[in-house]
Structures are given as structure tokens and as C-alpha cells.
Amino acid sequence: MRTIKVSLEKRFPNGWIDRMTALNTVLKSDTEIDYNVSAIRADFPALDLKINGHPLAFLDSGASAQKPVQVLDRMDHAYRSEYANVHRGAYTLSQLATDNYENARMTVANFMNAKTPDEVIFTRNGTAAINLVAYSYGRTFLRAGDEIIISHMEHHANIVPWQLLRDAIGVEIKIAPIDDHGNFLMDEFEKLLCPKTKLVAVTHVSNVLGTILPIKEIVRQAHNIGAHVLIDGCQGIVHDGVDVQDLDAEFYAFTGHKLYGPSGIGVLWGKLDLLNKMPPYEGGGDMIENVTFEKTTYREAPARFEAGTPPIIEAVGLATAIDYVTGVGLENIANYETKLLTYATNHLAEIDGLRIIGRADNKAPIISFELDGVHAHDIGTIIDSKGVAVRAGHHCAQPLMDRYGLVATARASLGMYNNTDDIDQLVDALNYVKDIFG
Amino acid sequence: MEDDIRELYQEVILDHGKNPRNFRHPEDATCEANGNNPLCGDKLTVFVKVGVDQNIEDAAFEGRGCAISVASASMMTDIVTGKKVAEVDALFEIFHKMCKGEEVDETPEKFEDDLDKLVVLSGVKQFPMRVKCATLAWHTINAAVHGEKAVSSE
Known about the structure:
The complex is a heterodimer. Chain A has 17 helices and 17 strands. By secondary structure, chain A is α/β, with parallel strands linked by helices. In chain A, strands 4-10-9-8-7-5-6 form a seven-stranded mixed sheet, sandwiched between helices. Chain B has one domain (2-146): Sufe protein. Chain: A (Alpha-Beta Complex), CATH 3.90.1010. Helix content of chain B is 44%, strand content 18%. The interface between A and B is medium-sized, with 21 and 24 residues.
């Protein structure tokens, strides 16, 4: 666990540093425990559900993960006993809510190894974080004719904001290609880099193929020609984690709800000096220094980018979710998920007529597949009758689907709580699909 | 639930889904429209030849989609051929209600045979998210004959 050297005294005068130190000690020892998936499952109430008479096999965590009871209880308690607006009232409850909110920022900063919590901006979700950069950074630092490189396996959230920017100011978008297995082609990417390249915006992990991109090498290459880098970490932070100082990108965006936290909160991390050169994205309360009808001055990051009442309790929930996964250990989770991915890949491959889309060398536990003669949407409906939840469709990545000549795939995405029973239930349900379709 | 699944995916739907009728692009079509179900990625184009007196002389389609949407388009193109546009509108209204599980008023006798065929698709009423699949082709032909270029079922 990392520690953070910042002016904590000013921000957290109430012994927070001591509490963080104690928490770090606990987490450090916890990472040495063995992976006990049964104990983890017991923390997630949704996994006890019966769906259509069958135990729920929840294989759609890539869309949104279930929440542990620790997150639910913490949010419930915060709403009942610690709730007021933040950064406003001179009363006990408001101070408590403000402390909770800013402590959550600290937890996120620690989790990503940010230099300072000031680099952590709370947003509505991952999409909002990327749009913030596209609007505020894009319209300030980019000019007509500048080039932005994205990869062929981006989620729409890391395509459309750049197209809006292109339509507004005339930047160009270049696509870094991938191979048939879903590997990011480093050589081809390097060929795209040129003096016009000002920004590289790529995903950490493909939400369809599961490919883990070589983001550190991408950052290094981009920096060589002076370009900035944004990483869409919505899938990546869950399975691979991030150390933003080691990575050295300019921006890293992720969402809370895929990380076992609540919906309604996302994070934009950015290098502080850059953030403070960017103009506000939205105007309103809490982001200003001084307002007159003639002229308004703005606060520094992160407040500059958090206009209006923020997602207060969602921040508390996200911090609790981060404590939860850190307690189990991100590396332990990743090791376990990799084993389960291998188990799932092997068992699915045994199904006649099933084709897995995405066979990258370095993969997160996401498996997209096709079944001969059966549309993904039919698969989704039929296996739901057996209690199995998967995503079916284009996964908000239509250009990627076009790349493989697909209209839709079914996608099983694993989380820290899935087990081999879930995979077996999926395989049985897929055999039932085949049975129906003859 | 499994009974509902078997009722939805009965033989006639699977047959139309695998071997769709009128799956072609007629050169002499007088109108066409694109139907798009962004939720699951169904995309189809419906071609219609409307003759004198608003009579549908030919209907066909192309595209990709789930078994329900393809079967529905296949059956629809069979059924609407030889009918007047106004009749197709009326039939769609009844069919739409069937799919949503809503009460259907007394149906005109002339539609009895057609509705007997279409009733196999009404199994979608147990699956609210699939109603759009069953009705996509009908929304699309409706757009085609009434001069709209495209329809999205979202």
C-alpha cells in the first residue's frame, strides 16, 4: 500500500493521517490471505437471488458489478446519520459529510497512487470523466489539424467525445489497429505517431475482447513525440489496477459501479499542473473563488471541476468498495480471475459451434462469443431462463464489431465473486440453447 | 419459465428464423426503410412495391437479427402481400397489442387467418425486452409505406 505526501494537515485536521496509517497496516496484512471465494460471495447479497427458479449466475460484471454488503451498509449509515451537503455548513453534520467526502477522495488517491488527492476529480461516471477532458482540455490545448489517436477497440465513451470535439474544432481522429486475436498492434501505433499527434486516448482493457493494452509502453511512445495520453480505465482498474505515477499518463478515467461501488460516481485523475491550466467544464456553485456579475474567478482542481452538489454518498460508497477490494488484494483477485478465465475459456471451447472473439495474449476475464446459427439476443433470453446473466449486443463498441464482421456477441464478464459453478451453469445453459435451436 | 421459452422458440419461429421467406432486394420496390434495434443490434431493410389503389404487390427484406426479429419479418412479408396499406396498418395495431399482452378488441374476420399465424409470435409478451424484436419489421414497413426512411425501436 502506498502512502501520500501532501498537505494533509490542512485538509484533514482530525487525525486522518493516523487512521490512514492504521488502515494501510491492516490492508497490507490482509493481502497475504488466501483467496476464499465462498467468503467473498457471502458478502454480496445479490448472489443469493433465485432467477427463474435457478441460482443467479451473474456474468455481467463488465457492465456493472454487484455490491458487497459493506458498501450497502456504509452508504445506508451515511444517509441515515452522516448526511448534509458538503463544503457549506458550519455545523457538525456538514463537517462530517465533508470529511467523509474528502476522505473518499484520499482513498481513491491512495488506490491509484496519485501524488495528491487534488488530482482526483469526482464525476458522474467514466463517460463524464472523458467528456470533461474532451471539452475542457480539448478546446484549450488542441487546434484544427491536430491528431488524436484512439484504438480500434474503444468503447463509444472514448470515441464519441472526440468526434464531438472534431466537429467543434476540426481535430483529426486516427485509429490504431488491432489483429484478429484482439492484440493492440504496437508497431502500427508507432507508425501513426507524428508531430501532429497531440493526444492518445486508449482503453486500458477492452470491454468486448478483454485485451489488456500495453498502456505503459503506449504512454512512453506518445511522450517521445510530446503527445499527452488519456487512459479509459473503466474495465482496467478493476482487473489490473493502476499506479498513475508509474504509468505517467496525463489522464486516467474510471467509473465506480464496475469496481463494486455505487452507480452515479466516476473519477477523473489528471496531472495537477495540467488540470489547473484547464478551464471549468461546468459552471455553478462550489467551483468558484469569487462571483460578480462582471467577472468570476475559479478555484483550483479538483473543486474547479466539481460544480454543484457532488455525489456525496456515492463517494463514501466508492471508498468503501475500494477498501473492500484492497482488503482482499487486487493482485489476489487478478490471479484468481485469471484462473477462472482459463477454466471458462477451456469449458466454453468444448461447446461445438462456439467461437470466442478475442484471444489476446494478455487478457482480463471477459469472454465474448458467438454460437453458430444463434443470435446473441436469443442466447441472452434463453440462458436467462436458467438463471444466467450475460450481456448480448454490440457492447457500445460498434466499430469493433464491424472490424470482426459481427452484429452482436454474447459476453460473459467475470468478477471477484464468480466461481466454477457459475461457469458450469453457463455451459449447461448454452447446451440448452443448442438443444432448442437443434 | 422454460415453458415460456419453449413457447417463444417454437418450431415455426425457428423455421422462419433459419429459412426466412422473401429474403431479397426486389428491384422494382417503390419504397423502403431501415429498421434498427440498437439494444441487440438487429438491423433490417424492408422493401415494398405499392401499386395502384395503395395495394401492396410485393414485400421483402434483408438484414441480420435475432430469431424473433427475422421470423417476424419473414412472416410479415408473406402476410402483407396482396393487402392494402390501410389494412396493414390495422393489422399492425392488433399485432402490436398481442405482443404487448394487451386486450385485443374483436378482430375483423378478414384478418382471422393472418392472426392465427401471427399468434406464435405473441409468446414475446412474457419477455418485455423482446417485444421490440417481434415488432421491428412491422415498424419498419410502416415507415416505408408512409414515407419515412428509417425507424429505431429504441
